[in-house]
Structures are given as structure tokens and as C-alpha cells.
Amino acid sequence: MAPASAVDPAVLASVRDHLAQPVEQARGLPGFMFHDPEIYALEQERIFAKSWVCVGAEDELARIGDVKPVEVAGRPLVLVRDESDQIRAFHNICSHRGALLVTEKGRRKVIACPYHAWTYGLDGQLHKTPHICGQGIHDSPSLDRSLHGLKPVRCAVWAKLVFVNLDPMAPSLDEDLAPLSARWAAYDFAELRLGATRDFVLPANWKLGIENFVERYHLPWVHPTLNGFSGIRYSYELLHARFVGVGSTGFAPPTPHGPLPSFRGLPESELRRAEYPCVFPNVMLGMHADFMYAYVLTPDGPHSTKERLYMFFAGDAAMQPEYAAAREHRTEVIAGINVEDMDIVSRLHRGCASPAMGGAVFSPVFEKTSQLFQRMVIERLVETPALETVLAAE
Ligand code: FES
Ligand SMILES: [Fe+2]
Q1: Of 129, 233, 346, 348, which sits 20 to 30 A from 207 (CA to CA)?
Q2: Residue 116 in contact with ligand 1 by CB distance below 6 A
Q3: How far does residue 78's CA lie from ligand 1's centre (Å)?
Q4: Is the dihedral of CA 326, 328, 334, 339 positive or negative?
Q5: What is the gyration radius of the CA atoms in the chain, in angstroms?
Q6: What pLDDT, on a 0 to 100 scale, did the predictor assign at position 324?
């Protein structure tokens, strides 16, 4: 039975302490933590409003003036490629009365509010306030436009993926992801080319999608085909404070349409390596010799998660028409694995609704990763300031 208030600090501290035990004795997050709306709200404030959150791919904003609305921790934001070719993020609300500005992906010369036509440049500056002081009088002595531009949000690009962070005090994205950049120094991110996207709706809590991704215990039963060409006997763990997941030294997928070009300069010894870290909190990566994928997860309440798959290939050569069938096949293989996962993860979600689900018992060999991911979650829920303090500070 869920406690009267799931966000009671004593309850969260108890969950944290049980999770912090050695994997053999640890107990995972209780089932209510995947269903309770108060826990969801707390995660939004203490995790999503405090972290570098992935919101898409740079190629979705390829041209100056491209805009894309996104939402992070319940805040509507808009991504914009400005005149200086930089991707910026702003709160997607008008400085006048707060109307939502951009509701669809598209291309704009300016950002004009549909309500009273206040108009902003791609740099967020407020340029026009038509008729603000009566018919034909577009300026107001009481309004300094330079103080009423769109409110900026920190935004940065890593591995062709766009991240935002609502926390002005957080370290930079480069600093935050330096350990993974160093680990993957052999892969030149400049070579990444977005080749395909796919959208999914996972009928489950976002955390279940990720904890499934970071463990390979389920491969023989849920992914018998994948287990055939990248078996758990080749696997190893990635256990790091900033990313968690698994790797394989024996990734050899079928190539009915021939091989794809690999990243330039990759040592021969790395050609069969694949690594699958979750970069906390919401992006699941798959790095391979000839492609990288990213699943970007957007929680949509405690019971549903939007997922967008981005498939990147290695260099312009891989994007040539003669590789179209190979790219398509690789994309379908990766998407098909996700479909297999979605079915089992939705079962996990429904099972976790039971009051009898007091918390996972972990495989000491295969599930240190799931334990670490759950610890990343609970540590943030326990140790950050109270919700009221977070909101007041904004
Ligand atoms: S709310 Fe945007 S112009 Fe009035
Ligand atoms: Fe899986």
C-alpha cells in the first residue's frame, strides 16, 4: 500500500537506504514510485528541471529560422536556430500576457504572438508592440522593450543532440558529459548524420523504459534475435555517476544489404563494439562502429512516455543512395528491438501498480546497472531542496 504521502521525506530516505545496499541485499524502487502523481511531480522538479535534458537533434533545426516547441518539466520551451546559426532555447510564452507562442515545428523570420502581435526576433529580442498605446501608436513610455524579450534557457549541443537545462547553476553540458566524451573519443561526433527518426508511445513510466534499457538480463527471452548477434556472453557494464548501461564486444548484426561505412579512424579492435548508456535522465544511446542511435524520452505523466528514435550514420558516404537499403534495414532492426521492449515494459508498469510490488530484487551479475539508475533517481529526489524552495527560486 502506498503511504499517505509518497513524497514524505522519511519514506524517500527509507527507499534510498534500501537501494544503497550491496546489490545482493538491495531492494529497488517500490511500485508506487512508478504510478504516484506526486512522485511524478517531484521528479519533474528535482530531476527534469535540474538536469541537462535532451530535447532532440540538431538536424531538426537545420536552417536559420527553424523553430521547434518542446516541453521540459512542464515548462513550454521553444528551440530556435538564430541568425548567427546558433541553436537557442527560450520559454515559449509571450512577455505580454503569457500566450503560448510556437505550437508547431516550422520556419519563421520572426516569432509573432497570435494574440496581440507582439513580435520577437530569433534572438528573443522584443521588436514590435503594435498599437500598444492606441491606434497607430506602437511605443509606450512605460515599456522598455529591451527588458521584455523572451526568457532564455540554457541550451547546448553534444553529439548532434540538443540539450536544455532550466538550472542556471548547473555545470556546462561539456563538463557534465566530459567522461562520456573521453570514453568515446575514437568516434568523431562531427561525422554523425541524421538518417531516420521513428516515434513511439510507451504505455509505461519513463523510469521503467530506462531501467529495462540498461540491463541485458532480459535479452535471451525478450530479444532472442538480438541475443543471437550480440549475446549477453559478450556484454559488460557501464557504471558511472553520469551514465549507466551496458556494452558488447561482439556486435555483429546481419547485413543483407551489405555493410555501412564506419566512423573514420576507428581501430580494428573496436569494429564489433557497441555501447548502450543512458545519459541521465532521458536519453538512451547506442554507439556502434557504423551508426549511433538516440532514444529521447519525454515523460507524459506517470503512465506514458513519448519516445523518439534518432538514427545517425557515419559520415556523408553513409548517406549516399547506394546505402539507403542498408540504413533502412538497420533502422528497422533497432526499432523492432524497441517494439519487443515496449510490450514487456508495459507489463512491468501494470505489475508495479500492485501494492504487493515492494521493490525489485536484483540479479547480482546483470542488474547493478538497474540498481544504479534507480539510485540516480532516488538520490535526486531525497537530497535536493523542498519543492517549494525550488519553485520560489525560479
Ligand atoms: S499575449 Fe502575446 S501579444 Fe498579447
Ligand atoms: Fe531490451
Answers
A1: 233
A2: yes
A3: 16
A4: negative
A5: 23
A6: 98
State whether the beta carbon of 113 lies less than 6 angstroms from ligand 1.
yes
Contact (CB, 8 A) for 309 and 283: no
Cα 164 from chain centroid (whole Å)? 10
pLDDT score at 223: 87
CA of 341 to the centre of ligand 2 (A): 5
309 part of a folded domain: yes
Note whether residue 167 is domain-resident.
Answer: no
Of the residues 95, 122, 157, which one is the last residue of a structural domain? 157
Tell me: the pLDDT tens digits for 168-225? 999 999 999 999 999 999 999 999 999 999 999 999 999 999 999 999 999 889 988 8
**Structural domain that includes position 320:** 177-376
CATH of the domain at 69: 2.102.10.10
Q: Is the CB of 244 under 6 A from ligand 1?
A: no
Q: Examine the domain organization and report whether 129 and 207 are in the same domain.
A: no
Measured by CA distance, the residue closest to atom 1 of ligand 1 is: 97
Gap from CA of 147 to ligand 1 centroid (Å)? 16
* Cβ of 18 below 6 Å from ligand 1: no
Distance 94 CA to ligand 1 centre (A): 6
Say how far apart CA 297 and CA 295 lie, in whole Å: 6
pLDDT given for residue 225 in this prediction? 83
Whether 275 and 356 map to the same domain: the answer is yes
List phi, psi (to 5°) of 120: -120, 150
Which atom of ligand 1 lies closest to the CA of 94? 2
Residue 131 pLDDT = 97
* pLDDT band per the 50, 70, 90 thresholds, residue 228: confident
Tell me if 25 is assigned to some domain.
no
CATH number at residue 312: 3.90.380.10
At 333, list the grid cell. Answer: 532492426
Residue 43 lies in a domain: no
Q: Percent of the chain beyond pLDDT 70? A: 95
Does the beta carbon of 97 sit less than 6 angstroms from any atom of ligand 1?
A: yes
How many structural domains compose the chain? 2
